[in-house]
């Protein structure tokens, strides 16, 4: 909690102070608040497009298929922006597939992950003609073969390997440890590849790895890739053709004082392992593209002093942004208006939800706040709204999209009536 953030201009891109007013691109956040209210998520279109293009440029020699990880932010406006930029999509549910097809995504640029695909999701993905299903277990592969056979279809599949690489990140988002639910062992994968005749309706030509999220250095990526490329070469020597490799996502971003690798540094580390391999390369970035594109804007309801502590009680809670409560995640917090010489105090920034775990920051040294002041929780573009809930029967916040000097509501704030949509009281109650 005592992290000292880097200077704002170094990593916040289009979220910055202009004449002491915090803005997203050319729009003061206070202007958005005046029209939309709080809490509200605000995203910069420019940041999203630029980060997608940075990754594309860095890996241009591989001509990769970049499949944006929809679970990081699934708003239709964001998905449409990326589809128009040429992005593909990594989906993990029937709902995410529905969303990306709704914005006109090319099915041949869609990969479907998830350890627990239902029969309906498998059938729907095959019907839509997506590029590939990423398979996480032998029982799942058996199920895909059965469904594809009944549909008289042949479906492209990649096996997700577990390379047993431990990335230095929160244990909740490590996905390649031996005890993880994700992927299959190299030994099991080898057996599957040597018995492909058991799967006549499956075109098993791909390998998939994903070692975790918010990874700041290249070492674990390189370690996982070395193991995976060696495995692919051993399969090829045995006459088993592998056509593509999905190297996953997981690139970290700056939340405070992290030294996150750039797209260029990441590319320099992995390119030597992938060039001249005659493999189509797919990757699945989410946070890297979205994380620093967005902020959650809130207002101070009360300033409470108790037990030798200062509390900023704000109108955004753990139901709006759960990352601090769930992961102990750090998000920088800034006032909407910078005031020179403003006295600083140490605060716990907490929400109105009836849980002791409802906080956005603890022991944070901030400029002195008063009731009614606005503040922005930075780096909230990824895994923010998508993880929001109606806990305590709280309507979810609005989402706003900014491009240059204009902004538009891309998801209206939920109403109280929305809270009970779909519910009914039985006649016998």
In short:
This protein is 28% helix and 24% strand. With 429 residues, it is α/β, with parallel strands linked by helices.
Overall shape: globular
Distance between the first and last residues' Cα: 49 Å
Which spans of ≥5 residues are poorly predicted at pLDDT below 50? 169-177
How would you state the average pLDDT, rounded?
Answer: 93
Topology, number of strands: 20
Number of helices: 13
What percent of the residues sit in helical stretches (DSSP H or I)?
25-40%
Q: Largest sheet, described in full?
A: 9 strands, mixed
Strand coverage percent? 15-25%
The rounded Rg comes to 23 Å
Structural class, by secondary structure, is alpha/beta
Outline the structure in words.
- This protein has 429 residues and is an alpha/beta fold.
- It has helices at 8-11, 29-36, 45-58, 76-84, 94-102, 119-128, 138-151, 186-193, 219-237, 263-274, 287-290, 323-327, 416-419, and strands spanning 15-18, 21-24, 27-28, 40-44, 65-69, 88-91, 110-112, 132-135, 155-160, 202-208, 244-246, 280-283, 294-306, 309-314, 333-335, 344-350, 359-367, 374-377, 398-403, 406-411.
- Strands 4, 13, 14, 15, 16, 17, 18, 19 and 20 form a nine-stranded mixed sheet that branches. Strands 5-6-7-8-9-10-11-12 form an eight-stranded parallel β-barrel, surrounded by four helices.
- A hairpin with a 2-residue loop joins strand 1 and strand 2 (21-24).
- Helix 3 runs parallel beside helix 10 (263-274), helix 6 (119-128) packs across helix 7 and helix 9 packs parallel to helix 10 (263-274).
- The chain is globular.
- Residues 169-177 have low confidence and may be disordered.
């Amino acid at each position: 909690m005592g992290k000292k953030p880097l200077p704002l201009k170094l990593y916040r891109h289009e979220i910055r102070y202009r004449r002491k007013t915090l803005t997203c691109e050319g729009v003061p956040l206070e202007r958005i608040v005046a029209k939309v209210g709080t809490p509200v998520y605000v995203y910069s279109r420019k940041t999203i497009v630029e980060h997608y293009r940075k990754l594309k440029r860095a890996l241009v020699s591989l001509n990769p298929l970049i499949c944006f990880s929809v679970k990081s932010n699934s708003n239709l406006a964001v998905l449409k922006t990326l589809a128009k930029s040429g992005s593909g999509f990594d989906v993990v549910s029937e709902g995410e597939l529905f969303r990306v097809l709704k914005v006109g995504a090319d099915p041949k640029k869609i990969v479907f992950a998830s350890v627990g695909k239902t029969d309906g999701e498998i059938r729907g993905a095959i019907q839509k003609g997506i590029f590939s299903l990423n398979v996480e277990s032998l029982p799942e592969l058996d199920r895909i073969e059965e469904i594809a056979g009944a549909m008289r279809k042949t479906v492209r599949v990649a096996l997700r390997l577990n390379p047993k690489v431990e990335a230095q990140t929160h244990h909740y988002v490590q996905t390649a440890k031996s005890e993880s639910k994700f992927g299959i062992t190299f030994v099991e994968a080898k057996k599957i590849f040597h018995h492909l005749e058991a799967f006549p309706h499956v075109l098993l030509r791909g390998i998939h790895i994903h070692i975790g999220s918010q990874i700041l250095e290249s070492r674990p990526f390189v370690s996982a890739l070395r193991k995976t490329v060696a495995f692919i070469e051993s399969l090829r020597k045995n006459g088993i053709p592998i056509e593509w490799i999905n190297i996953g996502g997981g690139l970290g971003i700056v939340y405070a004082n992290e030294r996150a690798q750039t797209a260029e540094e990441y590319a320099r580390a992995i390119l030597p392992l992938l060039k001249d391999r005659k493999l189509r390369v797919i990757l699945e970035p989410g946070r890297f593209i979205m994380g620093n594109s967005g902020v959650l804007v809130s207002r101070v309801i009360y300033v409470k002093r108790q037990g030798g502590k200062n509390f900023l009680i704000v109108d955004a809670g753990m139901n709006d942004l759960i990352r601090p409560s769930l992961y102990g995640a750090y998000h920088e917090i800034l006032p909407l208006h910078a005031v020179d010489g403003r006295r600083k105090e140490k605060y716990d920034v907490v929400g109105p939800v009836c849980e002791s775990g409802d906080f956005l920051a603890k022991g944070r040294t901030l400029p002195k706040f008063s009731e009614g002041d606005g503040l922005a929780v930075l780096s909230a573009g990824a895994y923010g709204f998508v993880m929001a809930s109606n806990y305590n029967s709280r309507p979810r916040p609005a989402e706003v999209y900014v491009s240059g000097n204009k902004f538009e509501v891309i998801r209206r704030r939920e109403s109280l009536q929305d809270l009970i949509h779909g519910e009914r009281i039985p006649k016998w109650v």
